[in-house]
Design goal:
Layout (H helix, E strand, L loop, with lengths): L1 H13 L4 H19 L9 H12 L37 E2 L8 H4 L21 H18 L2 H8 L1 E2 L3 H21 L10 H28 L1
Parallel strand pairs: 1-2
Helix pairs in contact: 5-6, 5-8, 6-7
The protein binds a DNA duplex through helix 3 and helix 7.
Length: about 220
DNA sequence: AGCAAAATAT
DNA sequence: TATATTTTGC
């Protein structure tokens, strides 16, 4: 029995969700609709993939089929939960380059002509919203909550180097548009508040995050 | 900030 | 040609 216990613990520890494994779950809850909405293709008709590849080849960087670096999201500040900070110790405040998300970075492209790092005021290559980048966007929105989910704060929370407020704003516009449409397709509503639609989904995403926090906390407690 | 439409790039 | 992203005007 004791051996079983140790085995159980080993297995339990082994099955602990790593940041890498956590992603798919969040995605699963969001993707079926979101992925469809944003037309995120996986492999077959991958115009997005093609774009990414094109961008990669354009910036003479190797194309990564598998996204290795789990994107740590900065600390959550505007959350409606002022309780404990977070059950996720791996969260860190670090800037991420667009190249990490397989998107173009003006800095890399401009290395030949201008070498101008001050991307503002300069025309940067159009941003490619890769699934990963979009995931980060969604996470940021979920973290911020409805109140603070404005382009500026979202951009700050995403902390992706090279990402402009306009990028986020335009994407957020599209995002809301989709959520709105999604609500319209939903049963019977139709009459609900216009803004109230995407609020619900964001709330749901937030709940999912809290769920995982609780799980982590629980694991911490029973393991101690 | 937000929205919609036009413009432009892929 | 169609779609994705940006720009523009309000």
């Amino acid at each position: 029995m004791r051996e079983d216990d140790s085995n159980w613990f080993a297995r339990w520890e082994d099955e602990l969700p790593s940041p890498d494994k956590l992603m798919p779950i969040t995605q699963t809850l969001i993707t079926p609709d979101l992925a469809l909405a944003f037309d995120i293709r996986n492999s077959t008709n991958s115009s997005a993939a093609a774009a990414v590849v094109a961008a990669a080849s354009n910036s003479l960087h190797q194309n990564q089929p598998v996204p290795p670096p789990p994107p740590p999201l900065p600390t959550s500040s505007g959350l409606p939960s002022p309780n404990h900070n977070n059950g996720n110790p791996s969260l860190a405040t670090s800037q991420h380059n667009l190249s990490e998300f397989a998107a173009k970075s003006s800095a890399e492209l401009g290395s030949g002509t201008g070498g101008n790092e001050s991307a503002r005021t300069l025309k940067r290559p159009r941003l490619v919203w890769t699934p990963q980048l979009h995931k980060r966007f969604v996470d940021a929105v979920a973290h911020l909550g409805i109140k603070n989910a404005v382009p500026k704060t979202i951009m700050q929370l995403m902390s992706v180097d090279g990402l402009t407020r306009e990028n986020v704003a335009s994407h957020l516009q599209k995002f809301r548009l989709y959520l709105k449409r999604m609500q319209g397709l939903s049963s019977g509503g139709g009459g609900g508040g216009g803004v109230g639609s995407w609020v619900g989904l964001v709330l749901m995403m937030w709940r999912v995050k809290m769920m995982w926090r609780v799980r982590f906390y629980f694991c911490w407690v029973i393991s101690g």
